Amino acid sequence: MAVCKRPAAAVDCHSQAKPAKKRRFVVARRTAPTVTKKPAAFATTADYEVDTTSSLGEGAFGVVYKARHRATGQTVAIKFDAYADGDPRELLREARFLEACSGNPHVVGFRCVVRDPPTGELGLVMEFVPGPSLRSILFRRRRAAEPPLPEATVRTFMRQLLMGVRGMQDRNIVHRDIKPENVMLAEEGGEVLLKICDFGLAISASDPPPHKQAGTKMYTAPEVLMGKPGHDALVDAWSLGCVMAELLVGERLLQRGGVMEALFDLEMCAEEVAYLWTIFGVLGTPDDTTWPGFASLPRAATMPPLELEQRSRLREMFPEEMLSEEGFQVLNGLLTCNPEERLSAADALKLPWFAAAAD
Predict the structure, then answer these.
(1) Is 177 labeled as catalytic in the residue annotation?
(2) Which of 1, 149, 222, 350 has the fewest CB neighbours in a 10 Å radius?
(3) For the domain bounded by 134-357, which CATH number is listed?
(4) In this predicted model, what pLDDT tens digit does every residue of 301-346 receive, in sequence order?
(5) From 12, 81, 85, 177, active-site residue
């Protein structure tokens, strides 16, 4: 489980955060590469006053605390490994990814890495974002039975997220766990600013395959679920499509697409297969015509012979009164099963839907 997040808590960007709930699906911990460069900035835990009475977020791979830099008084967030015997290369790798994204306004800022002198434990010091996560905003709106976010707000949010991912792609970084829990909201100059966090499962696009499956399944691209050995930035584009769909209706796309138990008994089939068939039930069942090489993907041989519709139901689920034709062009382009036909973040930002919010 990835960790660098502030949990569901409040309605606005000034509320007090509470400890995060653990995700339902836990993925295998990624093996660190042989070579991991050290980040440029190093410090010691003695430079910070850490509030360990409550965490900002916690999970299988780490725990995040609020802290104050003693000399400057600056408030930061510090992520420590969840295991005392954890591989320090994991945290150093995450630090390098964050450091590489420095200057990207839509990624949580990197400050430094700290070491605890007595134990040698490392901590990742990051920008403290005082607002809630996007997940908590959506949860609060759903619980209060509030109407979905207007299309103009969804466009503003998606533009920021796509810019964040485009910046990662420019730096050869694949996040692999983009979801509302890993998006923080802050206020800057009277406007809401979205920041992507938690690079614990990220990889470099130059890392040779095979790459282990990672992420949260309801936001995981179909080629990953099908067992494709290599991952690139287009898996993040798919995740953004899932986030966009959730922003529009307030609930996860695959939950809205149909109850998975109606397709398969989850006790009797792999979770990946259940999610795949739910995706195909919404977007149509691919084949070698619509997705060249589909039948040769590793999981294709183990798929049950279930016939689903060949056509996509996506427009039926997001009609024009909910999403304009220009907006649907973005959603449909991101939620394309064949990664070769899927929109990249950079290409999505060039579409007419974003013209009114151009730089």
Answers:
(1) yes
(2) 350
(3) 1.10.510.10
(4) 777 765 666 789 999 999 999 999 999 999 999 999 999 999 999 9
(5) 177
